[in-house]
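User: hey, got a sec? need XRE family transcriptional regulator folded
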Amino acid sequence: MAPGVVPLAPGLILLAARGMTLTRLNAIVGVSQANLSVLKDDRARAVRYSTIVAVCRALECEIGELLVLDPPSS
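Assistant: Yep! Here you go:
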């Protein structure tokens, strides 16, 4: 993942706000629960665009709600 990008963590806040579990997201998106956990825990080195799109569709959100730029450190 690019430096300064926080992958999917905000999306997992959306997940909770929509009352959805990782198990349910797995069933909708078709990404394994193990891979969703890697994304949730910010351990992913890369994320496929198709995965991001599938998660956005499942959570009914925009990509910008999933990927948030971290402010640069001084």
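Quick note: The beta strands are 5-7, 67-69. Let me know if you need anything else on XRE family transcriptional regulator.
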